[in-house]
Structure to design on (500 residues):
């Protein structure tokens, strides 16, 4: 654990170092009045730092464009900026970024007043647009400076994490959701093979078992009609299948000859119909016994084939073991459908009928799956308990995506139907420190405030937030740990790494 923390800390310092470009001019934030612009669409995030817009003066608009939902830099594309004030439009088009994700525009406003900026984006995927409203063009620089001083953002408990840094990591941000969030039952479940997905192959006779060479091993794939093993009674003093087969064949051959002879005699009325029926009955009985043995046995023993495609889950005997008819030899499973068997406390009995879904977390790799991903369904839940177990069973069914092993255990978060709505955020957003939980609230795409929150229940993927943030505050959903480490290693200049 300490090694992992050390590696992450080194990564944070590398990202900090990469964002500092000493060969480029770095402006002090108090040197000129700056305007920070942020906009989102379904496809892009925009964060821009611009000189205050003053009529007749050129303003630089340093713009960072990120693809959504990946939050990676826009590397190829043409962008046109349009400043529109009182119907008058100033435009500039850049056919490529000055550096990955960064477009540096220079525009000179010609009209004082309120307006908007429109970014027209052309990429291989199509044409897109971002709009920033409430843009003000000032008459003088003094007016712009006064407005900028009033708009200075609070830096209390905040961290600067530049777009150049976030483009290098698995980063994302999003708004909290207000959604139905019922009572969650957290428990552990055992993974079992589905009844229709597993079959036990048993011995059909007594004898010594001989497994096929290296083809009957646990985990080995088998196909329908493939011979798995044979059972032979050769050498046994009692219950010798070879002797029984030979005896049945001899009896059948004798009964057949007797019946054919009796039929000829009956044609001449030499014997009675009663004797004919007795002979015919003897023939049919021995025929049935012989054909049954001939179908399932040979003089050397019984060959047993796989009834389904799958793999050997468990082998119950060793090569050369004496087995009896009906004794389980091995289990074959297709491992496509699995059953989760969980037990919950009796206090949850009133809400078991409202179970609608579940999230499943694997213990070996800590990955969480939704019911929808696994095509899951609720099979049943117990109505009573017994003397051996006072817990109530719940049976769920899922498709195996390859991450589940029958016989193992998973952690499940059982979800119930509800009309109550709650504010929820993704679990990776939460940072825990000594029992307290925090999130990073986005002030702008490069400035984040560390905010304490009070949490409620969790379904393994999202957590209910009782207090601390609102539904209109965008938070970091991936990469929060690196922002935390960046804060611990020192705050960066807000303009470091930007091309001006």
């Amino acid at each position: 654990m300490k090694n992992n923390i050390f590696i992450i800390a080194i990564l944070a310092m590398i990202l900090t170092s990469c964002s500092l470009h000493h060969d480029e001019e770095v402006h002090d934030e108090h040197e000129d009045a700056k305007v920070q612009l942020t906009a989102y669409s379904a496809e892009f995030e925009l964060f821009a730092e611009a000189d205050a817009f003053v009529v007749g003066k050129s303003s630089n608009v340093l713009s960072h464009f990120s693809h959504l939902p990946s939050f990676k830099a826009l590397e190829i594309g043409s962008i046109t900026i349009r400043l529109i004030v009182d119907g008058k439009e100033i435009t500039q088009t850049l056919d490529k970024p000055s550096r990955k994700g960064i477009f540096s525009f220079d525009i000179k406003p010609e009209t004082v007043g309120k307006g908007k900026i429109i970014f027209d984006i052309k990429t291989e995927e199509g044409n897109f647009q971002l709009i920033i409203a409430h843009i003000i063009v000032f008459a003088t620089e003094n007016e712009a400076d006064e407005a900028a001083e009033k708009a200075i953002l609070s830096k209390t408990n905040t961290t600067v994490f530049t777009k150049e840094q976030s483009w290098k990591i698995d980063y994302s941000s999003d708004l909290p959701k207000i959604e139905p969030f019922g009572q969650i039952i957290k428990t552990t479940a055992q993974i079992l093979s589905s009844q229709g997905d597993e079959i036990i192959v048993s011995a059909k006779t007594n004898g010594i078992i001989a497994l096929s060479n290296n083809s009957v091993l646990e985990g080995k794939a088998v196909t329908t009609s493939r011979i798995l093993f044979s059972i032979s009674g050769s050498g046994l003093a009692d219950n010798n299948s070879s002797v029984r087969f030979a005896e049945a064949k001899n009896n059948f051959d004798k009964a057949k000859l007797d019946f054919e002879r009796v039929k000829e005699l009956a044609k001449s009325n030499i014997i009675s119909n009663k004797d004919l029926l007795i002979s015919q009955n003897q023939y049919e009985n021995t025929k049935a016994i012989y054909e049954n043995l001939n179908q399932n046995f040979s003089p050397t023993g019984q060959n047993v084939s796989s009834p389904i495609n799958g793999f050997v889950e468990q082998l119950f005997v060793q090569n050369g073991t004496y087995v009896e008819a009906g004794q389980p030899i091995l289990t074959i499973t297709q491992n496509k459908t699995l059953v989760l068997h969980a037990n919950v406390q009796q206090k949850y009995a009133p809400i078991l009928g409202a179970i609608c879904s579940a999230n499943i977390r694997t213990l070996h790799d800590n990955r969480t799956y939704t019911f929808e991903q696994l095509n899951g369904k609720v099979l049943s839940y117990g109505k009573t308990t017994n003397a051996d177990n006072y817990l109530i069973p719940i049976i769920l069914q899922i498709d195996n995506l390859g991450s589940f092993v029958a016989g193992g255990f998973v952690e499940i978060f059982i979800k119930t139907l509800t009309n109550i709505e709650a504010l929820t955020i993704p679990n990776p957003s939460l940072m825990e420190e000594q029992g307290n939980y925090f999130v990073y609230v986005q002030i702008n795409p490069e400035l984040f405030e560390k905010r304490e929150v009070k949490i409620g229940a969790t379904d393994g993927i999202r957590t209910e937030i009782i207090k601390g943030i609102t539904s209109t505050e965008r938070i970091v959903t991936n990469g929060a740990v690196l922002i935390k480490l960046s804060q611990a290693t020192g705050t960066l200049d807000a303009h470091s790494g930007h091309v001006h």
About this structure: DSSP finds six helices and 32 strands in the chain. The first strand starts at residue 34 and ends at 40. Confidence is low (pLDDT under 50) at residues 1-30, 491-497. Residues 184-194+336-416 form a domain with the Elongation Factor Tu (Ef-tu); domain 3 fold (CATH 2.40.30.170).
